Inverse folding.
């Protein structure tokens, strides 16, 4: 109120002395009202941003991918790796389907060994790629190692049995490479293949 009266008084002086000339020292009006300028700046600083200002600030202040953030790694990176794992497993599913068909149709040893060789290579890749990663603890990962090793053993047995036929008759007591033994091993492998396929096809 006091400051308002001061302003009115100054205006009256200016009006009454217009044209007559004023002799004396004018009061420091700028210093008197400097608090209003500071308040005005403060209010402008706290005013809400416009949409354009916010868009510009967001574009200029985008944060880099937080690769050191454990949550980001677990949710985003692991998800991507799991997707890759599923793709690699899918390749093995196709091979196991071929192996099952080969056993059921009693295909030649050459076809059998070719499929098993392909299986071994793919499972070995998965073993090396994921052994030190979370996927290395999956049931599917461990089951792949089991079925691959068993398929390798059966392939070796068949190959050795084919060579032994030239020297050991089926009736020999030293001949372990009989058809009965081979059929038993193939049947056991088929069960393992079916169980592994079930596990692989039900991965999340």
């Amino acid at each position: 109120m006091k400051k308002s009266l001061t302003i009115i008084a100054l205006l009256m002086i200016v009006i009454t002395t217009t044209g007559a000339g004023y002799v004396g020292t004018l009061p420091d009006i700028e210093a008197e009202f400097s608090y209003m300028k500071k308040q005005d700046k403060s209010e402008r600083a706290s005013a809400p941003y416009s949409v354009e200002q916010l868009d510009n600030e967001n574009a200029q202040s985008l944060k880099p991918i937080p690769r050191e953030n454990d949550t980001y790694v677990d949710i985003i990176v692991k998800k991507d790796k799991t997707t890759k794992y599923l793709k690699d497993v899918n390749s093995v599913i196709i091979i196991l389907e071929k192996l099952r068909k080969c056993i059921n149709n009693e295909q030649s040893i050459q076809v059998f060994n070719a499929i098993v060789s392909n299986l071994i290579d793919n499972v070995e890749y998965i073993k090396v790629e994921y052994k030190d990663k979370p996927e290395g603890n999956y049931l599917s990962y461990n089951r792949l190692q089991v079925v691959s090793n068993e398929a390798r053993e059966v392939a070796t047995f068949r190959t050795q049995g084919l060579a032994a036929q030239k020297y050991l008759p089926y009736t020999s007591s030293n001949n372990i490479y009989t058809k009965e033994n081979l059929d038993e091993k193939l049947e056991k492998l088929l069960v393992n293949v079916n169980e592994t396929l079930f596990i692989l096809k039900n991965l999340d």
The two ends are 76 Å apart (CA to CA). The CA atoms of residues 194 and 203 lie 15 Å apart. The chain is about 75% helix and 0% strand. Residues 16-22, 41-49 have pLDDT under 50 and may be disordered.
